Amino acid sequence: MPFTTAIYKNSSAFIVAYDLTDLDSLQELFIEEIENHANENPLIVIVGNKADLPSNIENPEEKIKELTNGKIIKLFEQVQKESTNVDELFFYLIKKMKNAQKWHNQ
Fold first, then answer.
1. CATH number for the domain harbouring residue 27
2. What is the pTM (predicted TM-score) of this model?
3. Whether 52 contacts 79, CB under 8 Å
4. Domain span holding position 58
């Protein structure tokens, strides 16, 4: 198994970041690769970084829906240097993973 697919195998959550100022970075989200190689129903959070700068991407949520075939994936926008939404992102992940674990253990 190549290293790249091994990374996904035992992971249940993924944080995938893109640059809000660079449309090409949206094309590199690897959502299909995650879904093909990760455990069933992985939790995927997409983070648009550089929210403090003017965005070159019109309506990023629609573009992401197109790239993910309309699947609902949680989106965050953040300013990394100011830690904007960083805590919210991790609290969201922890809550979702904890709830999934409770559901799985029933």
1. 3.40.50.300
2. 0.76
3. yes
4. 3-105
